[in-house]
Amino acid sequence: MILTILGGGGFRVPLVHAALLADREPGRVTELRLFDDDPVRLRAIAAVCAEQASGGADAPRLSVHTDLADAVRGTDFVFSAIRVGGLAGRACDETIPLRHDLIGQETVGAGGIAYALRTLPVVTRIAREIRILAPDAWVINFTNPAGVVTEALVAELGQRVVGICDSPVGLGRRALKAVGVASSKGDATGIDYVGLNHLGWVRHLWVDGVDRLPDLMADRPRLESFEEGRLFGADWLQALGALPNEYLHHYYFTREALAADKGADASRAQVITAQQAGFYGVAEPASPGALGRWDDVRLARERTYMATNREASGSFERDAEDLETGGYDRVALAIMHAIAHDRPARLILNVPNAGRLHELDDAAVIEAPCDVDASGIHPLAIDPLPRYASGLVTTVKEVERLTLAAATSGSRRDAWLAMAHHPLVDSVRVARTVLDELISAEPGLSYLR
User: Fold this and answer.
1) Are 276 and 448 in contact (CB under 8 A)?
2) What 8-state DSSP symbol labels residue 257?
3) Tens of pLDDT along the chain (449 residues)?
4) pTM (2 d.p.)
5) Per-residue DSSP letters for 111-125?
6) Closest CA to 438 of 145, 84, 93, 105
7) Which helix (H) or strand (E) holds 6?
């Protein structure tokens, strides 16, 4: 089985490679192709993968590519993890809104819209090449903003597209652990989660037919024993009666998150850029010891994940288990085995709504549990959204649709509509100013006229 990773020079690629090395099941991936338009980053990540595989038996054959056609021709699965505009683009997404007292985040609010506007034309072109060169391939999308990017890919490639994210399964795993139940990374059994990407809630935790979430909600120490409990606080979670995805902190504690962002010495992109200079920026990134250098930077990255949000909630440290990172890598592996070898799996995925949420049309991509097997992806029935969630989901989905329209039309006015309608953008005038500055600063947005 052949797997192609788009964004093969990306920092998290070794996590996927490690999952492939640990997979000893029949029918596993035997060939891994890494594609990236940055040969230096590609060579550095290939060196890490080579060290990871050293001494092991039957490691997937690894090849690197800077030509997309060579990378995808005849592949079985495509894992999309590209970052259009790189960390420089992300830094603009974060710092320009912040200058105008708006949340600066790569997938949420004004920054998320800018990231999507840069990315959507590129993934659309890639999808059209995949349709020609690998018409039977499945595309697993991890490219952010994952929901709207997955929706664009589905429009081009149909039902052989699925979006994944590690946030929902991480939340579910931590919540189950708090009630004394162990769960493997990636497995969504018992986790009733629904929403959009980076905008969802766990409403039930089913264990042997019993919902354990009410017990967790009633136990304040256990509720605040894991990351989301400390981030949001027991009082708010008990009031909601649900466990929000960590990214909802930007919506529920906007003033506090904004103040923490403005008080930080550097944006998240600037922090990561400085950290990764110790890996990509060495004289010869592919020299011996690449794996050790990569792991040191990985650990520093995980320790500082959502640091300003944690600062706004009391400056707590992340648990050691959460520093292991990953989860999406196992979701991707489970999808491939389920489809290629009929090994059923229950996973939280980004797929078309297909009638599950009455607020949205059938084609709208949502994030919710699905069963996956050789016949494809089967969305599970879900309870209606609570009223407090329904309005937010509907509004943010409309922003995603406006963003898609702008990426298709190349219209600056359409992009302004998307920016101005986001619930974290509180002024039409500021929306236009921020958009104009983003377009001026980012080459990937120059198509907007």
Assistant:
1) no
2) H
3) 999 999 999 999 999 999 999 998 888 999 999 999 999 999 999 999 999 999 888 899 999 999 999 999 999 999 999 999 999 999 999 999 999 999 999 999 999 999 999 999 999 999 999 999 999 999 999 999 999 999 999 999 999 999 999 999 999 999 999 999 988 767 889 999 999 999 999 999 999 999 999 999 999 999 999 999 999 999 999 999 999 999 999 999 999 999 999 999 999 999 999 999 989 988 687 788 999 999 999 999 999 999 999 999 987 888 877 777 668 899 999 999 999 999 999 999 999 999 999 999 999 999 999 999 999 999 999 999 999 999 999 999 999 999 999 999 999 999 999 999 999 999 999 999 999 999 999 999 999 99
4) 0.96
5) HHHHHHHHHHHHHHH
6) 93
7) strand 2-6
Give the Cα separation of 16 and 329 in Å (integer): 5
Cα separation, 31 vs 65, in Å, equals 13
Contact by Cβ (8 Å): 161, 154: yes
Cα–Cα distance for residue pair 331/315, rounded to 1 Å: 30
Residues in the chain: 449
Nearest partner of 59 among 30, 19, 36, 38, judged by Cα? 30
Beta bridge partners, 243, equal 202
Partners of 378 in beta bridges: 371
Alpha-carbon dihedral angle through residues 94, 96, 100, 101, given to the nearest 10 degrees: 10
Element (H or E) spanning 371, and its range?
strand 365-373
- Name the strand (E) or helix (H) holding 281: none
**Are residues 406 and 373 in contact, defined by beta-carbon separation less than 8 angstroms?**
no
* CB 79 within 8 Å of CB 3: yes
Question: CA Rg, the chain, in Å?
Answer: 21
Q: Tokens for 447?
A: 């198509």
| Rounded Cα–Cα distance for residues 143 and 146 (Å) | 5
Beta strand spans in 154-274 (E): 161-163, 191-196, 199-207, 210-211, 243-244
Calpha distance 305→303 (Å, rounded): 6
Q: Which of 372, 316, 4, 56 is nearest to 188 (CA)?
A: 372
Pairing of strands 31-35, 61-65: parallel
Sign of dihedral through CA atoms 279, 198, 366, 205?
Answer: positive
Of 228, 220, 226, nearest in space to 252 by CA: 228
Closest Cα partner for 172 from 193, 152, 198, 195? 193
Beta bridge partners of 367: 195, 350
Please, which residues have CB within 8 angstroms of residue 413's CB and are 6 or more apart in sequence?
A: none
| Percent of the chain that is helix, strand, coil (3-state, to 5) | 50, 15, 35
C-alpha span between 432 and 438 (Å, rounded): 10
